[in-house]
Amino acid sequence: MFDFFRKRIGRAASNAARVDPVEPAAIAEVSVSDREIALARVAELADDEPAAVDFILQCEFADARLLAAEHVYSRPMVERVLQAMRNSDRRVVKLMQGRLDYCRQWEADEQQANHCITQARQLVSSPHLTPNQVADLDRAWQKIQHVAPPLQHTFDNPRSRLQQRLAEQADLQRRVLDALAQVRNWMSDDAFVVSADAMQQLSVLEQQVVQQRASAEAASLPKNLLPEFAQAVTDLRQALLRIAQSEEGIAARRTLLAQWEAAAPASLTEAAIMQAWRAAPALPDQRLIQPLQARLDMLLLQIKQSHIAQQDAGHPVNPDLQNQFAAGLARLEQALQEGALQAAAEQDRVVRSLDQKLARPSAEQTANLTRLRAELVRLQGWARWGGNVSREELLHAAMSLPAQSLAVAELARKVGSLRERWKSLDISAGPAGKDLWQRFDLACTAAYAPAAAHFKQLADERARNAAKAQTLIDECSSFASAFLVDGSEPEQLDWKAAATFLDRMRQAWRQLGTLDRKDKKRLDLAFDAALDRLAEPLAAQRSREVAQREKLIAEAANLNPQERGTLDAVRDLQERWQQHSRAMPLERRQEQQLWQRFREQCDTVFAKRKEVALAADTDRRQHLAEKTALCARLEAAQSGPDTSIRQLLRDTRTAWNQIGSVAHAAERAIEDRYRQAEQSLQRRLEDAKRHELAACLQALQIRLHSCQALEQLLATMAAVPADQLMRAQNEWAGLASAGTQYEDLLQTRFAAAITAAQAQDRDYALSLESQRGLLLDELLRLEILSGLDSPAEFSRRRLQLQVAGLQSSLKTGQKQPVTNESEQLSALCRLPALIDQQTSQRIERILDWYKSGKAVI
After folding, report:
1. Does the model's pTM come out above 0.70?
2. What number of CA atoms fall less than 13 Å from residue 481's CA on the CB side?
């Protein structure tokens, strides 16, 4: 992207150069003016989106384009600007991309909102509306992030209608449920059943439900609600019809009772009364006859008591029987008050067993007994009726059990509960009819069939588990007999196999499954006895193994972490531990405890060694820092003076040798750094020494040439002019020093020549000539030592000097010849002699050879 900007700027600059070589200040003024004009145009694009897009595509100022992009919102325009500016303006592209994403999100939300509105309208017209559908619609609407007000208003209208429909459905269902509850209450209310306007009230309620069934929301009612209401209305209507049909029988019986009650009890007989009573029209509902039956029982009791009183008028009274009669009557009344019909019936039988002739109950007691027996009969009638209703409900519940798909345990529990409730009804409401009992028993048997099959399957499974248990017991006995051979040493037995076998047997026993209670205890005892044959010696062996493990733990605790072979000892202990663990596994908890203790001891050794290693590592890091500082000191000396480098190198080398070792990973790098810094300084010293030697040799060459020139004047002139001598001395004083080794020699030689020139010593001039041969020999020796070639005419003499040097080096007790180039050059500088042009060139060649650095002196 930056290459694009650079290319664009380059093109603009080249175009400007081609058009007109305008001054830079003028270009800046023009650019500022154009930018201000562009920014002014942006302010005019507030409501003109197409113009803003055209401006962005044509404008060359980024700030103006960004401001103009603020006025672009529609998706086509945004996509156009995004496509055009994708490779030229990052800020505009980022802004347009965000607005394009917003437009896409808005369109998606609008599409989802339209979908929800369509779904809401469909639900409004749907005949079967459920609350779950409305809840799903609300969740889908809540997921929409951006909703335009018109869409919100469009959605609210059908949504409010849906809410209204749900309210109407709830109200309709509530009214139908109330009507059903009212019908059921009327069925249990005897006062309503025998009332005159019962049929009219039922018709009104039924008409209300018919109107509610015609409601638009009737389809939302539960499927079983209206059939239940219709069945309840049918049952109640039939009960009312039966009561209406019983009016004739009731009227006849009331007339008979009125006649009998008006007559004297002594004039009536029980047989005649019962014959007339049975001859009356039958009643379909026995509940209607219960109040009349109580009056009849009272009348029969009075007739019986009247006859008994007449027959037993002369019999004596028994006080004990009177007390028993009174007590039984009191207990009967109390039982009736408590609603204990069974106890009341028992007390009635006790009272009936007493001899009425001897007990002689009073009229009040007789009337009370008659009233209590009538109440008992009434309650027993209601109990029988309620018991029959309850039995019908139990029968219905038993018949509905197969369709409920209950779990086996729940099914067995419910069937057992139904049978227990049936038995309790036999006690409280009397025995049921044979037909009803057979139907109930068949229904319970059919409902219990899956549970019976399941329990039979469980019984078969328990039998198979018992067989498996016996197989495991036999297997344990066989293994123990084969494993524990008489005379076998404990060390020779495979205890790991025994432990594995025991664990496998115990696990198989735990996974065995359920057993019959009568077999479980016996099989458990047999299995434990079979395992004990193997478990006891295994426990003893494990005790010995624990002692071995304790010994290993003690050895690990006694290790010295500072010793060199400690790690090998720890590894050896760990290997021995693994061998013991593989050979004789202990119980998991005991194994973990011992291993934890052993590992703690090993970890202690490793921790202490780690502390030492950390301390050593700290020292190595300190050593590395010190050596790094020395390297930095040497590297910093690269730009320092040469005078202190040699001492710095000596001090640094001493300090380097005194510093300990560093980490192996950094050792090579720091050594290389130190060696490079040291070698760099050594090269600098060598270069300085080489330059110094070259300067000294240059000065030596000049001074030697001055000496030779002065000696040449002494040999050719009888008297050297004083001004010439003065000039030679002045030049000599202005020459650079040739070094301490050669400076004194040349100074002595030059001074001798000056002295001889001033004294006009011809002997000195003659000695110069006589020493020419010595000078040539010294020059040959120097060429031999330097490895330089000599002129061909001196080859014989050079060979002689070489042979003489070899012979003298083989003899003992003689002075060894000069073998050092520096000493040989000193001898050459020390010897004053006349030289010719060839000799001068040979000396110059030797000095140039030394100045080049190819030879070291």
Report:
1. no
2. 6
Could you tell me which of 469, 504, 586, 478 has the C-alpha nearest to residue 538? 586
Q: How far, CA to CA in Å, does 645 sit from each of 202, 638, 650, 696, 714? A: 128, 9, 9, 21, 47
Q: CB of 495 within 8 A of CB of 541?
A: yes
Sorted by sequence, the CB contacts under 8 Å of residue 10 that are 6+ apart come out as none
DSSP assigned state of 148: -
Stated length of the chain: 857
Report the SS3 class of residue 580: helix
Q: Residue 611: is its pLDDT beyond 70?
A: yes
Q: Could you tell me which of 304, 428, 414 has the C-alpha nearest to residue 367?
A: 304
| Torsion (CA) 490, 491, 493, 499 in degrees, nearest 10 | 80
| CA–CA separation, 710 and 747 (whole Å) | 13
If one counts every other C-beta atom within 10 angstroms of the C-beta of residue 455, the result is 13
SS (H, E, C) 48-97: CHHHHHHHHHHCCCHHHHHHHHCCCCCHHHHHHHHHHHCCCCHHHHHHHH
Cβ contacts of 669-678, under 8 Å, gap ≥ 24: 670/624, 670/627, 670/628, 670/631, 673/628, 673/631, 674/627, 674/630, 674/631, 674/634, 677/631, 677/634, 677/635, 677/638, 678/634, 678/649, 678/652, 678/653
Provide the CA 813 distance to its chain's centre, in angstroms. Answer: 96
CA dist 667 and 673 (Å) reads: 10
Mean of all residue pLDDT scores within the chain: 75
The string of DSSP letters for 210-254 reads HHHHTSTTGGGS-TTHHHHHHHHHHHHHHHHHHHHHTHHHHHHHH
Whole-number Cα distances in Å, 243 to 193, 238, 248, 292: 8, 9, 10, 15
**428 close to 387: Cβ distance less than 8 angstroms:** yes
| pLDDT tens track for 407-432 | 878 888 888 888 888 877 766 666 67
Give the gyration radius of the chain's Cα atoms.
Answer: 68
Amino acid at 81: V
Whether the CB-CB separation of 169 and 220 falls below 8 Å is answered with yes
For tokens 């990052």, name the residue. 90
Give the span between the Cα atoms of 14 and 7, in whole angstroms: 10
pLDDT tens per residue across span 623-660: 888 888 878 887 887 776 666 777 877 888 888 888 88
Q: Rounded to an integer, what distance in angstroms lies between the CA atom of residue 301 and that of residue 356?
A: 12
| Inter-residue contact 176 to 229 (CB < 8 Å) | yes
pLDDT at 20: 39
How does DSSP classify residue 638? G
- Identify the three-state secondary structure at position 717: coil
**Measured between alpha carbons, how far is 560 from 553 in angstroms, rounded to an integer?**
14
pLDDT for 266 equals 66
The tokens of 65 are what? 């384009």
DSSP secondary structure, 530-568, as one string: HHHHHHHHHHHHHHHHHHHHHHHHHHHHT--TTSTTHHH
Give SS3 for 740: helix
Sign of the Cα torsion 427, 431, 436, 441 reads positive
Residues 6+ apart with CB under 8 A from 53: 72, 77, 80, 81
User: At 289, which helix (H) or strand (E)?
Assistant: none
Q: CA 183 to CA 89: how far, in whole Å?
A: 82
Tokens (6 digits) for 393: 């409900």
Side chain identity, residue 371: R
Neighbours of 436 (CB within 10 A): 15
How far is the C-alpha of 371 from the C-alpha of 378, rounded, in Å? 10
- Residue 9 scores a pLDDT above 50: no
Q: Distance between CA 134 and CA 572 in Å, rounded?
A: 75
Buried-state track 606-615, b at ≥16 Cβ within 10 A, e below 16 = beebeeeeee
